[in-house]
Amino acid sequence: MIAVSELGSFSAAATALYISQPALTRRVALLEAELDLKLFIRTPRGVFLTDAGRIVIEPARRAISETERIKRELDLIHAGSRGSLLITGAPNLNLAHIGGLIGRFQQVHPEVDIRVGHSRSTAAALEAVESGTRDLAIVDSQPTSDRFALTELWEDDYFAVMAHGAKTAARSHVIPTVTADMIRGRPLVHMPRSSHPIEQGQALFDMVGVEPDSRIETEHCELLVPIAIGGHGVAIVPRLQAMRAFEEGAFVASPPERMTATISLARRFDEASPSVMRFLRLVRTAKASARTFVPKLLESAESLAS
Fold first, then answer.
1. Hey, which bits of 69-147 come out as E strands?
2. Are 91 and 220 spatial neighbours (Cβ–Cβ below 8 Å)?
3. Average pLDDT, rounded, for the chain
């Protein structure tokens, strides 16, 4: 209809649209029959819009323009340069390392709307992905369901953080190993078991054969170290938190047996947007590149102090 109006004849419009004139004529006739109104006046001088045609033509132009705009937007989403990337993770995880990757992704794809939130636990983060409210979950354990696909990020080491005491060694360039005397009589500071079933703190006490004097539970991971130091307790935290605590004067020791957690990105196995797939490709590229993806494992107090 728009081509006929702009070019003034069915034959010219048919040529511009790469269809036959009879086919175009039938399409316009079907539209007129559906509306029960004539849209064009056919004269020897050409084809002109009727009053009804003039009413229809502008909304038709807007509809074509909006359709083209939608198609362009969808093409950008398909290319991964438009869309959204919604990430969530439990507050007990060390998420600092992934921040750089998110920043790099935003530089390459500035039109992608990126939002990073937190869930009460790893299980809650996985539920958010499964329900479709989030695209990716940062997790520290293997999901029990086969509905998720995992992309490994890094392996995080855990350290014991506590206040200095009679049984703790003086600050040195060697990280001591936790002993029974070092933590005997101290309370264990930990996250709620209901939301964080992997409890490294209890595992540490089990390794040295003693029981915590008491337990202090907090839902806020940022309070683990301050409570442990202020209450002469023990908290088991990822290495980045241990580094910060060491710099602030806390006593840091390594478990008798190495304690680690594999941090991964989980997505729905059967569904992922172009933005998600491009972000995961960036993660894999970063891991495979010559640059260190995350800081090397802390092996000495000198590493912590440097």
1. 83-89, 112-118, 136-139
2. yes
3. 84
Which pLDDT does position 290 carry in this prediction? 43
The pLDDT, as a whole number, for residue 31 is 86
Q: What mean pLDDT comes out for the span 27-51?
A: 87
Please provide residue 284's backbone torsions phi and psi, each rounded to the nearest 5 degrees. -65, -40
How far apart are the C-alpha atoms of 113 and 115, rounded to whole Å? 7
Picking from 187, 219, 222, 227, the residue whose alpha carbon sits closest to that of residue 204 is 187
Same domain, 233 and 283: no
In a domain, 87, yes or no: yes
Instruction: Kindly give the pairing relationship between strand 188-190 and strand 234-238.
Output: parallel
Residues 48 and 173 in one domain: no
Task: Please report how the helices 51-79 and 274-288 are oriented relative to each other, as an axis angle in degrees rounded to 10.
Answer: 20
HSE (CB half, 13 Å, CA atoms) of 297?
13
pLDDT band at 255 (very low <50, low <70, confident <90, very high): very high
**Domains of the chain: total:** 3
Is 236 a domain residue? yes
Residue 214's contacts (CB-CB under 8 Å, 6 or more residues apart) are 187, 188
Domain that holds residue 255: 156-260
Position 39 confidence tier, pLDDT thresholds 50, 70, 90: confident
Q: How many helices (H) and strands (E) does the chain have?
A: 12, 11
Assigned domain for 304 exists: no
Beta bridge partners of 41: 48
Q: Which residue has the higher pLDDT, 176 or 141?
A: 176
Is 278 a residue whose pLDDT tops 70? yes
Residues 112 and 234 in one domain: no
Nearest alpha carbon to residue 126 among 104, 149, 94, 106: 149
CATH number of the CATH domain containing 161: 3.40.190.10
Alpha helices, DSSP H, located in 109-169: 122-131
Average confidence (pLDDT) over 34-55? 87
